[in-house]
Amino acid sequence: MLRNIIALFLVCSLSTIAFADPESAANPVNTNDSEYTFNEVLLSALEGNAEAQIELGHLYREGTGIHQDYTEALRWYREAASQGNANAENNIGVLYQKGLGVNQDNVEAVKWYRKAAEQGFALAENNLGFMHLKGMGVPQNYAEAEKSFRKAAERGLTEAQFELGSLYLAGAGIRQDYAEAIKWYHKAAKQGHASSQFNLGFMYRKGFGVKQNYTEALKWYRKAAEQGDASRQFDLGFIYEKGFAGEQDYVEAVKWYHKAAEQGDASGQTNLGFMYRKGFGVEQNFTEALKWYRKAAEQGDAQGQSNLGFMYEKGFGVEQDYSQAIKWYRKAAEKGNTQSQSNLGMMCQNGLGVEQDYTKAMKWYRKAEEQEHARSQTKPE
């Protein structure tokens, strides 16, 4: 039996270290006259202008109009940092943390983040919070992470507001506080932070820290998806398919799966294929189902591979081909897909596409049974 099992998870804390660029570098190069722009910036940097030095570092870092050179980027950030520029200090920290143009060194990264953070530079405060959160360059310390994130969040940095909300939601090293989580997610969501919008939708759907409200939940889920991120589009499709925020709506599910699938999201492709195969929210079409399963399968998606194998086994949308079914079931089975393991066992038992072999059949049945048993012993979060 074909199954459509795609897990939906709350967006967790996924902070990434952030560079800071001078406001003047938002559009640092006029692409019609990049040589003139570079020379102009270089001249100003040589004259000691800290903002120009940072912008020059940015140009070398990104390879914008010139050959990318992290060592030169670091050199110019250091020039600006020698003048006490917090922006440059933060960027030096990022280069050390990522090992760009210098040996990777988390301790040195923390040193530079701290220098910038002590000047009230929000991105550095957020980056320092990340290092405390992950225990990189410093002992892991959730209280210190919360402290740094809060400073940056209070300055309006959306990523820090998201991190702070996530700490309170999870109760990671600090007291769990849904009301505080809602507060910070709201602040970031109103500024357009997609992950905060998604998590805010989750909080309204579950009634965590706020009265349960499916209308509000869908509003925020939709805002996140409308920003064009494929994973959020998939999530919204899944919510509509399963009716997690009210009634099921297969048409809306198909719409959002399609958006995600067209961006190459493998889970979206798999689920869109499922909707076409079953005729949920769209006219049943095995050819379309096969197309989307194949796209997902070729990306290595285990469920897509399993579903593609099923189409070949049954001859849905394609000429029945047990050899192809075996091929795709095996790919999925080797990734731990229990349905494919069971199907491989059945095909070995009955000699479909392979020589009949009860020993191999039992091997695959046992793998599936062991995984199902292990899954049944795991309590859902």
Low-confidence stretches: 1-9, 21-33
Q: What is the overall shape? A: elongated
Tally of extended strands?
0
- Helix share of residues? 55-70%
Main pleated sheet: none
- The number of helical segments is 19
What is the gyration radius calculated from CA atoms?
26 Å
Instruction: Give the helices and strands as they follow along the chain.
Output: HHHHHHHHHHHHHHHHHHH
Distance between the termini: 27 Å
Output the structural class.
mainly alpha
- Rounded mean pLDDT score: 89
Estimate what percentage of residues fall within beta strands.
under 5%
Structural account:
- 66% of the residues lie in helices and 0% in strands.
- It is mainly α.
- Helix 1 (34-46) packs across helix 2 (50-62) and helix 12 packs antiparallel against helix 13.
Describe the structure concisely for a colleague.
The protein is mostly helical. The protein contains 19 helices and no strands.
Any key phrases for this structure?
disordered N terminus, 0% strand, single chain, 381 residues, mainly alpha, elongated
